[in-house]
Fold this sequence. Notes:
The structure is a single chain. It is built from 19 helices and 24 strands. Helix 11 (215-228) packs across helix 12. The N and C termini lie far apart (66 Å). The chain is 39% helix and 21% strand. The model has no long low-confidence stretch (mean pLDDT 92). It is of the alpha/beta class. It folds into three domains: 3-136 and 348-434, no CATH class; 155-316, no CATH class; 438-556, GMP Synthetase, Chain A, domain 3.
Amino acid sequence: MHEYQKAISGVMEQPHSEHYKTIPEALLEVHPKKIFDEMPYMLEDCRTIQNQILEEILLLAQGSAYAQNHQLEGVQNLKQWRQSAQISTYDDYQTYIEAELAGHTDQLYTGKTAMYIATTGSTGKMKYFLESEAGNAAKQNIMTVRGLYMSGLLPVTLDMNAKNLTISNYAPVATRDDGKLIVRASGQTARNMRKKTGTMNLLPLEFWEAPGIPAHDRDYMMAVYTLAEVRFSKVFCNNVIHFGRILDRIVAEGAQMIEDVRYGRFSVNLQPDVRETLAATLPPAPERADVLQAIYNRNGCLITCPDDIAEIWPQFSMISCWLSAAVGRDAREVLRRLPPYIKCFDMGYGASEGKLNIPTKLASAAGVLAPFSCFYEFLPLDGGQPVCMWEVEAGKHYELLITTYSGLYRYNLLDIVRVDGFVGKTPNIVFCGKSGEYIIVNHTKVYGYQFADLIYQIEQRYNIEFDIMQIAVSGEQYYYVLESKNRVDYAAVKSELDMLTEALYGSTSAGIYVMKHTYKNSLFTGLTREDRGACGIKLPVVLRCAPDQDQIETVIK
């Protein structure tokens, strides 16, 4: 019997008994290499695993306030589930989460809560989620398997002398009166990574825990730390546009940064106690500064081309980041600035609510669903009832529903995913965009990702790249919002796009807003805060009003 089969066989025992372990907790005790070796068998056996996962989650739900109020008491299997469970969104859970935060336990599941997750997500409004011990274990399992796939393709990830630049949000972890942590969803994975990788990180823990540093100053400090480290080799960053902004700061302020490296200081305003704490984390490095100064003197700038990056950091060889949807366009913009030998591995698709897929190939936005993480259902975008992972069709688009160990039941992530084939019998999926980003054209709902696909066709045809693509809605009309560093015949682009949309939707655009080269960067700057950098930001694809007039270069009609 495989180790994963032993783990799922425990579902038949009584939950909360002295010796009971949930499937995620049992898997967490198996040696990671063993789990990795069994992945092909799990991906073939996804239906069995998924049924066991659902049955266990339903057992843990029994007796919770949510189950009692939503006709889930006594539901034990998939057939009953399909008859009883309703599709839900965050609003359905808010009062239960607030009650749990107030000290009333067993709101969404019966069992211990490991921590609370705080997130602003794509809405910009603060939301909280409960994280059970089993739910936390499920996320750890996925991160472990992702890491094993990554290290198999990129052995540098295991090199203890190759330094990581791990960029995440900055908010310190808070502790409630009950001793449980409140963590930022977008920063928790990075914190766990820093704990595991220790001295491989070029940004010290003291930097992340230091309070009162604006995002603008943090970016400057990250640039100084990175310039000081010749062994810098790897970037881990959800939206790698953040690393691009750090490169921009090096271009603009390289001379001052070289002096900071030379004398071991930061030329930003810091609280005296913070400056004192960080002093030991950046020792003076005059020899490193001399190397950087020679490059600066030769070019008049530290970075003028990819060759300069290769010279500054000769070991820099990989990036792990998001590669799908609009953020994939951000990644493309940054990657073209780097030496061509730098390899890229997707960070993996997930959300505050759960980590969901496992990338298995370099430079691919797709990843195979992890059947041992949660229970997945797919709501066809073209209509119909939810289907399970073994019932989906390749090439088809769905809204993804998840049922988790942390008390979310048929929860609609409001994410559109495409099934990009299968690994074994388990679907590969690609995140395409949010289902709330759409416009109505001739009584037809057209999603942001569909417009993005048309723009991609134009890019391929004309051998150009747009750094940002948005759709601005004005009454019953819509405009394309495009920014590119290429020379573009926008009149020809509009004509091509109009022919495509006329054929598909019986409609044409009102025009193209051609944006200044500062537009995209200004959007990220406007959305950053002290506790939120560009690494966690996804720019909207659909705008319900025209972009800032000051950022419009011209309008093509």
